[in-house]
Amino acid sequence: MTQKKKESMKDNLRWTPEMDECFIDALLEETMKGNRPDGTFSTYAYDNMVQTLTNNFGTHITKQHLKNRKKTLSQRFAELYDLFHGLSGFSWSPITKLFEADNQVWHDLIERKPNARKWKNAPVLHYDKLYELFSADRATGKYSKSGKERVAQWNSNVGGTNVESECNFQYESPNSQANLDDSPSNGTSVGTASVRGQKRKASMIESIEERCEKMTAGIKELVDVMRDGNVVAERQAQLAEKQAQLAEKHAQVAEWQAQIAEKQAQIAEKGLSILEKSRPRHYSEGEVWTAIEEIGIPEEQKLECYFFLCNEERHKLNCFGVPPHLRLQTLLRLMTDARNH
């Protein structure tokens, strides 16, 4: 089998009554969930419905299949709605799935609209659900008739019950296998201009739906981007706050290190001072002579004392290690001891 044949089989999906019922129920469910804003099903709604039908029938079903089928269903409903809506004497029966009326009422309608003959004995499946899905579009002008057509229709009404009042919207599984695609033909052809007009309308509606879906998807993406941007900004703010806290801690550590360094400098200074004080002082010859003059040594003994102290370093340390007022007494004793030895 060639690739083109495979693609053709995928595109030409054959719908069964069971698939129609499942799809229509899915359309109603997505509508109730709010996934049909402004009458247009969102991309999210189509994704859900594709998953539902795939799970139930295991067939290769795409979003385009669903769009095409919805278009077919809405067009078929539009034909029925425009034909029977507001006509007295007609009602759709949820039991027989037929539009029912007296024979005379049918006769009068067929005389005015020969195309209605095909629906006299043809069951219409799921009309109650299709009415719930698409009637609002017909009534609000999306597919509504002109005022002139309405007046003509009202003037031709026969006494009886309206179609909407007899639709109790309670679905029952149809015994008939008839489908909305399989509408009977009464041999009456539709005008070429009418068919083209319907095609143009359908194409325009489909184009508007696709644009609305793209806008919805774009808005969703924009919201996601804004949400992600807010998350990133919040994380950046948290990171900046943590960095500020870390910088503050670094500043405190640096301050503590500076205080420790200052204390270490003070300790080192005190150590040097103690070391200098513990070291014996070295007195030069000039300092020795000045000290001799200060302690009051007689003139004739200055030279003898000077040489005595300069010749022995330990004599200088002993003499100058005592307070100034005791240095004369200490020097004389040192000299006396040196003579005695």
Describe the overall structure.
The protein has 341 residues and is mainly alpha-helical. Helix content is 67%, strand content 1%. A hairpin with a 6-residue loop joins β1 (91-92) and β2. Residues 143-179 and 182-195 have low confidence and may be disordered.
Order of helices and strands: HHHHEEHHHHHHHHH
Largest sheet: 2 strands, antiparallel
Total strands: the figure is 2
Overall shape: rod-shaped
Note poorly predicted spans.
143-179, 182-195
Distance between the termini: 138 Å
Q: Total number of helical segments?
A: 13
Radius of gyration: 57 Å
Search tags:
single chain, 341 residues, mainly alpha, two-stranded antiparallel sheet, 13 helices, 2 strands
List the helices and strands and how they pair.
Layout (H helix, E strand, L loop, with lengths): L2 H9 L5 H16 L10 H15 L5 H22 L6 E2 L6 E2 L2 H10 L14 H13 L7 H9 L7 H4 L25 H87 L6 H10 L7 H10 L1 H8 L6 H14 L1
Antiparallel strand pairs: 1-2
Helix pairs in contact: 2-3, 2-6, 4-6, 10-11, 11-12, 12-13
Would you summarize the structure shown here?
This protein has 341 residues and is mainly alpha-helical. The chain has helices at residues 3-11, 17-32, 43-57, 63-84, 103-112, 127-139, 147-155, 163-166, 192-278, 285-294, 302-311, 313-320, 327-340; strands at 91-92, 99-100.
